[in-house]
Amino acid sequence: MSENLNELRLEGFLETLQPDRGQLLESIRARALADGVPIIRSETESLLRFLIMTRKPRKILEVGCAVGYSALIMRQAAESYGGCHITTMESYEPRVAQACENFAAAGAQQDIELLTGDATPYLEEMQPDGKFDFIFLDAAKAQYVVWLPNLLRLLAPDGLLVTDNILTSGDILESRFAVTRRNRTIHTRMREFLEKVTQDPKLTSAVLSVGDGVCLTAKRRTSD
Fold it and tell me: What residues contact residue 197 under an 8 Å CB cut-off, 6+ apart?
């Protein structure tokens, strides 16, 4: 009980350190939390802002749009250096409708392109010359390892892949048989994903216990 209380207190304290999101983003966030929509946690949001503002990507790919909150956070952060173009994907129709509504309210239609439906064919069909210098992966966790080859293909040589929720609410620490049956596929595939991004000699990755876990992955330079 005390551990949970401390976590809540820490979460509340970190929230007080967030920059002013503006009324629209605060409203979108509040509605998403009230509706139980899985949006990025405050500490993950801070990391995402920091990465965007320091790396200054011009072309961003997001897999897992939900109601558009994280895409709008990235767009807001990119305003510090002149803006970016974001391509985002969402398959769940009710969230697609909300995302479109939120993008329209923010006047973001020129900056954010929303692709609807399963991400797999989009990722397979995107051409290598349309590379992204920043990719944010926050979608169906069991698909991370399936999508990984195409995500790396689409990632620019100096780009960064940011993967959210890699700790799967702590399940990643358990054996496969200690997690609920319905989560075993996610558990197995997430471990496979983490093994691939941390053990591949062509990649360098950092696994962080931020939010529900974030993995940062970049391609190694050929001269390394």
Answer: 148, 161, 163, 203, 205, 215, 217
Compute the CA torsion angle 95, 100, 106, 108 (nearest 10 deg).
120
212 token code pair: 């529900």
Alpha helices in 91-200 (DSSP H): 93-106, 119-125, 144-154, 184-199
Structure tokens that stand for 203 in this block:
């990649």
pLDDT per residue over 49-94, tens digit each? 999 999 999 999 999 999 999 999 999 999 999 999 999 999 999 9
Q: What is the DSSP letter of 21?
A: -
Over residues 139-158, the pLDDT tens digits come to 988 999 999 999 999 999 99
